[in-house]
Amino acid sequence: MATPVRIAAIAPPAAEQPVGLRARQRVRRVTINGFTSIFAKLIVLATTIISVPLTYHYLGAERYGLWMTVTSLILFLGFADFGVGNGLTAAISAADGRDDHAEAQRQVTCGFLLLTGVCCCLLLAGACAYHFIPWASLYGTRGALACSEAGPVSAILIVCTALSMPVGTVLRVQLGYQQGFVADLWNAAGNLLALGGILLATHLRGGLPALVCAVAGAPLLATTCNCAWQFFRVRPWLRPRLALFDLHSALRLASVGGLFFLQQCFGLIYYVSDNVVISRTLGAREVAQYAVLQRIFSMGLVAQYFMLPLWPAIGEALTRHDYAWARQIARRAILFSLGLGLACGSILLLISRTLMLHWSGIDLGSVDMLRLGFAVWVVLVGYIAAMNALLNQPRTMRRHLVLFGSAAILSLVFKIVAARHGSLAGVVWATDLTFGILYAAPAALLVLRSLTIQETEARPRQSVAVGRYA
């Protein structure tokens, strides 16, 4: 096995820095990442404002509904990395907490090679199954044009999703080192490219496959450029090398990834299963109104942009036994996510009628249960993002999975029941009620209790360490 590349020390190791300095650095990184993420999402918002009415009127209700349904289904494939990506982020965060560059090198190589294997398997499975899947009936399409486009659109999205797995290693590395703002800037560039592709495709009167190529291919191109820049210019010592592959590290990464994979599956149920359920029970046309309204309220998911960079920061703090900072940030994260979610949800509830009329030409009238349900959903998604950041840690993740998975499975059952009764509002309220009742309070209690236990257990070790140097 090759010797890991040595890294020259240009600053004092983090372990030798004062605790207060490290805490301020974490807060600064989380803040920078959060605001950069908001900037990137403003780019997404701008592209959404331009592209949604353009593509909705260009494609029509059924083909637009087909697009949203296919996108939701392909998101399931996006989590076919079996949690390796999130496991890599956690491993990089822990290695950073120990200042262990050699371990980071091994984990990046193992993660990249594992994801490359998953990519190849997904492409092979898709190629073998493509001609045997009745794509049109799967999505509930009826029009001749929509039926003819269902298969090619699915193939394009499968290929782009599979290829994004290995090159997406760079995003996990940047997030693990609490530099998610770099990934956000590259993602913003990808979205701008996608918008240009959408405008070009509609101008040339291209079909739905051309639009999907633009939307899925542009972010893949941006991520590939980010990957090359990161591993050949910024951190060449982290570049994946076959000689650094370690079977034990790969198995450990896959084991941790299995837990994240379960959580991702549950997350798909609560976040993206709505369009699939509606399509299968009510048809693709009904998805269009629901999907446009969901996109409108998705603009209010601001809190989660700060919660995602908080996850590796919490992991690094726990690795260094900085429990006081973790406890303080946990309380602030819970209050921040609830307050910001409530503000964003309320604003969107007031302007959703105008936006819906502008985007789709549908006048929803006064406030109804569907829009009210989405306003509550905005608060809920931000809160769940905070809980994920705080509880996706080694000591608490399994217990968190029990809470999260139970609520997700029950919400799916209630979504199906609501859709079969023709209630679009019931689909979103199924998520709101199950997670609000079964998940919200128990998850917060688990956060506070686990931090208290870990801090109590660490005190004797810290006392012994102080005594040795007294």
Describe this entry's structure for a reader.
This protein has 470 residues and is mainly α. The chain has one domain. Helices cover 82% and strands 0% of the residues. Helix 2 crosses helix 11, helix 11 packs antiparallel against helix 12 and helix 15 runs parallel beside helix 17. The longest helix is centred in the N-terminal third of the chain and has 41 residues. It is globular and about 65 Å long. The two termini are 41 Å apart.
Q: What is this entry, summarized?
A:
By secondary structure, the chain is mainly alpha-helical. It is built from 18 helices and no strands.
* Termini Cα gap: 41 Å
Calculate Rg over CA atoms. Answer: 23 Å
Order of helices and strands: HHHHHHHHHHHHHHHHHH
Structural class: mainly alpha
Global outline: globular
Helix share, percent: over 70%
Query: What are the segments in which pLDDT stays under 50 over at least 5 consecutive residues?
Result: 1-16, 462-470
Per DSSP, the total helix count is: 18
Overall number of structural domains: 1
Biggest sheet descriptor: none
Ordered list of secondary-structure elements with their pairings:
Blueprint: H1 19-59, H2 61-78, H3 84-97, H4 101-129, H5 135-139, H6 144-167, H7 169-176, H8 180-203, H9 208-234, H10 247-271, H11 273-282, H12 284-298, H13 303-319, H14 323-360, H15 369-391, H16 397-420, H17 424-438, H18 440-469
